[in-house]
Design brief:
Elements (H helix, E strand, L loop, with lengths): L3 H20 L5 H20 L1 H14 L1 H4 L1 H4 L3 H6 L8 H18 L22 E4 L1 H5 L9 H13 L4 E6 L12 H7 L7 E6 L2 H8 L5 E7 L2 H8 L3 H17 L3 E7 L3 E2 L3 E2 L2 H12 L6 E5 L6 H15 L4 E5 L6 H10 L4 E4 L19 H7 L8 H15 L6 H5 L6
Parallel strand pairs: 1-2, 1-10, 2-3, 3-4, 4-5, 5-8, 8-9, 9-10
Antiparallel strand pairs: 6-7
Helix pairs in contact: 1-2, 2-7, 3-7, 7-15, 9-10, 9-18, 11-13, 14-15, 15-16, 17-18
């Protein structure tokens, strides 16, 4: 596995190699670009640590297999590029070249090669904790026909916090005619007790919503971008390009006012009006958003069509674009894959997952979309890596179903936890 001292030395090796290249005659700009990308990947993996670090080590060790036979490793790659099967600037290709460059540096400088020793089971690091962002007070309620009173929303938030939730989406600042459930956003936030260890999030779709949010005590602003023009026009009256520009304005506004802000890419896997979303389009959007410096970037399966393999593939593609910016995921359980997708995202290195107590939710602008992946189901599936109180979440799911006059959608709310003694 990559041990911290060895990995730190490897980073220094990359820096030294870059210096040598700059001093050499006619250095290759392309290889310098690859090495810079390699350095950013190493830095990000060091910051992630844990499971992501071990996985990165395994992949790098794989590159060193066969005595560093890169000719065999890259067999057919040039032909694929020439045939148009893969673009020269494809993020997956650049990621592959970056990791290859790292391995080449380790081979060229043997004193650093120990940092890439293959991992063994007895030294694998423990899994890092998973942060669950509770979204039931906002995304969970926004599409419900039963309008909960402000006091009930405040109690829902209090129950989630009592279960151990540390980040919670409490409201959205949108037009009340479009989302009546959120008409009391300011009142909900004003009624919340002081919660020093909890971060509250207010969702916005534009600068106007952000200005409203900044008038409240909400800790963080969550902005939404779209990966589909058709969805964007119906959801927030914006094209992809306009939503990215709006995100830049909101992030700048939040920063100027001392607030944290993050961005979610809606319909990152598919749109109810335009079909499947092209992964390269999502990669391009993420690349633009990363340049604005958000706290994190989320990939949202707004209509619940993603499958685990697609989740893994998209995360791998976008990770090369975000640098040190963390990724978050947001899944809906329309086709029963929400929990599996959350587990796949965590296995791919994501450590922050949105979920809603009871599996409540849906999108008023996405026909047929079911509720969010349920908080209690995610907690159970991840073996309580979130640190949340599963019994309290299940109890709250039952309470919330009574408030809404409908049964909860989650499996755990029906089956309960499994305890055998």
């Amino acid at each position: 596995m990559i041990r911290q001292p060895g990995a730190a030395e490897l980073v220094q090796a990359v820096i030294g190699w870059l210096s040598d290249q700059k001093a050499a005659t006619a250095p290759s700009p392309y290889m310098v670009r690859v090495a810079i990308n390699a350095l950013s990947i190493v830095q990000r993996e060091l910051e992630l640590g844990g499971t992501a670090e071990a996985e990165a080590t395994r992949r790098l060790a794989g590159l060193l297999g066969g005595g560093g036979d890169f000719s065999a490793l890259n067999a057919g790659l040039v032909e694929r590029i020439r045939a148009g099967a893969i673009a020269p600037d494809d993020p997956a290709l650049l990621d592959h070249l970056s990791r290859t460059a790292l391995a080449m540096i380790a081979i060229d400088q043997p004193r650093y090669r120990h940092a890439l020793a293959a991992p063994t089971a007895d030294v694998m690091p423990p899994s890092r904790p998973v942060t669950l962002v509770e979204v039931s007070p906002r995304d969970g309620l926004q599409n419900e026909k039963t309008i909960l009173p402000t006091a009930a929303k405040v109690e829902l938030i209090a129950r989630a916090v009592a279960a151990g939730v540390k980040r919670i989406e409490v409201a959205s600042f949108v037009h009340p005619d479009k989302v009546p459930q959120m008409a009391d956003a300011e009142a909900v936030i004003a009624a919340l007790p002081r919660m020093p260890d909890v971060e509250t999030i207010g969702l916005v779709l534009n600068k106007r919503g952000a200005l409203r949010a900044l008038e409240t005590a909400v800790d963080e602003i969550g902005m939404v971008c779209v990966a589909s023009d058709a969805f964007g026009q119906r959801n927030q009256g914006q094209t992809i390009e306009q939503s990215v520009a709006a995100a830049a304005d909101v992030l700048r506004l939040a920063r100027d006012n001392g607030r944290s802000a993050q961005v979610t890419v809606a319909v990152a896997f598919g749109c109810p009006f335009a079909g499947r979303t092209e992964p390269l389009r999502v990669v391009d959007i993420v690349r633009q958003l990363a340049a604005f410096g958000p706290r994190e970037i989320a990939l949202a399966d707004t209509i619940g069509i993603a499958r685990p393999a697609e989740v893994t593939a998209l995360i791998e593609r976008v990770q090369a674009e975000v640098g040190a910016i963390p990724l978050r995921v947001h899944f809906h359980d329309t086709r029963g894959t929400g929990v599996a997708n959350a587990v796949a995202a965590i296995a791919a290195g994501v450590r922050t997952v949105d979920a809603a107590i009871g599996g409540t939710g849906g999108c008023p602008f996405a026909p047929g979309a079911a509720g969010n992946v349920a908080s209690e189901d995610v907690v159970y599936a991840t073996d309580c890596a979130t640190g949340l109180d599963l019994a309290a979440l299940i109890d709250t799911a039952g309470w919330l179903s009574q408030q809404l006059g409908k049964p909860p959608a989650s499996a755990l709310a029906h089956a309960g936890d499994f305890k055998f003694s």
